């Protein structure tokens, strides 16, 4: 049934050949309209996948394939697995970089950041919404500081929701308040809070951050440093307590990301 066959009057509704003829003549129109309507969802940045994301990347200006240094193959002094009789000599025509294809989830984050870069007006107060939109759901909080000397500093911390999952928070509250009892999901795995949360971030996401794909800056501006708290939570600051900084016993000195 299509919207065209539903319009057949009662006089012709009982005639199978007439019904089939209308259906055969109009179904291509219905299928074409449905396919055209599906294009909106197929190429939506939040739902697109695979080749659809690749096509979006061509329009936005960021390819899925990115270069990364080749490590763990060529000979290096005092390095595991690539020392004497292990690593191979790099010839004059051997490349320094290889190419990898980003996964859909990480590539989507990169594309959102690129969309923000393409539409940014260059003003510092418009940066937070762009960064928050691109990094939503990744567990990363990024802040860009203008050093007023044509350089910026990128500060990276971990989102509070990423630090403590909802189920762990419910268990913690239950223990403090002596109830109610929280049933654990079948696939529950206890979180480790003795590990720096930065070290638990996906390696692919760390790579795109280090490569600068998520850094929003004006042309000619250099990135002076990309830093993160040494404990993975908040930076140290005197008499400051916000999403990025805290005082004694909570804040930590920054280190290179």
Largest sheet: 4 strands, mixed
Number of DSSP strand runs = 9
Strand content: 15-25%
The poorly predicted ranges are none
Q: Quickly count the helices.
A: 8
**How would you sum up the global shape?**
extended
Describe this entry's structure for a reader:
There is one protein chain. By secondary structure, this protein is α/β, with parallel strands linked by helices. It has helices at about 10-15, 15-40, 50-60, 105-120, 125-135, 160-165, 165-175, 205-210, and strands at about 65-70, 95-100, 140-145, 150-160, 220-230, 235, 245, 250, 255. Helix 3 (about 50-60) runs parallel beside helix 4 (about 105-120) and helix 4 (about 105-120) packs antiparallel against helix 5. The longest helix has 27 residues, at about 15-40. The radius of gyration is 27 Å and the shape is extended. The termini are far apart.
Question: Main traits of this protein?
Answer:
3-stranded parallel sheet; 8 helices; 4-stranded mixed sheet; alpha/beta; 35% helix; 257 residues
Topology:
Blueprint: H1 10-13, H2 16-42, H3 51-60, E1 65-69, E2 97-101, H4 104-119, H5 127-135, E3 140-146, E4 151-158, H6 160-163, H7 166-177, H8 203-210, E5 222-229, E6 234-236, E7 245-246, E8 251-252, E9 254-256
Parallel strand pairs: 4-5, 6-7, 6-8
Antiparallel strand pairs: 1-2, 3-4, 5-9
Summarize the structure.
Helix content is about 35%, strand content about 15%.
């Amino acid at each position: 049934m299509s919207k065209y066959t539903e319009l057949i009057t009662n006089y012709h509704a009982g005639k199978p050949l007439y019904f089939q003829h209308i259906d055969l003549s109009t179904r291509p129109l219905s299928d074409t309209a449905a396919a055209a309507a599906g294009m909106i969802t197929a190429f939506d940045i939040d739902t697109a996948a695979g080749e659809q994301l690749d096509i979006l990347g061509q329009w936005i200006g960021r390819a899925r394939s990115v270069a990364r240094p080749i490590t763990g193959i060529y000979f290096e002094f005092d390095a595991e697995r690539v020392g004497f009789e292990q690593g191979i000599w790099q010839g004059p025509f051997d490349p320094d970089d290889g190419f990898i294809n980003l996964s859909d989830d990480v590539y989507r984050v990169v594309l959102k950041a690129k969309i923000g870069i393409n539409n940014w007006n260059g003003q510092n107060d418009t940066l937070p919404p762009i960064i928050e939109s691109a990094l939503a759901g990744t567990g990363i909080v990024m802040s860009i500081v203008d050093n007023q000397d044509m350089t910026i500093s990128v500060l990276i911390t971990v989102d509070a929701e990423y630090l403590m999952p909802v189920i762990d928070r419910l268990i913690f509250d239950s223990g403090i308040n002596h109830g109610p009892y929280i049933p654990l999901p079948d696939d529950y795995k206890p979180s480790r809070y003795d590990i720096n949360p930065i070290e638990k971030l996906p390696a692919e996401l760390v790579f795109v951050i280090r490569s600068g794909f998520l850094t929003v800056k004006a042309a000619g501006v250099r990135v002076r440093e990309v830093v993160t708290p040494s404990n993975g939570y908040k930076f140290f600051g005197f008499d400051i307590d916000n999403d990025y900084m805290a005082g004694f016993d909570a804040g930590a000195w920054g280190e290179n990301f």
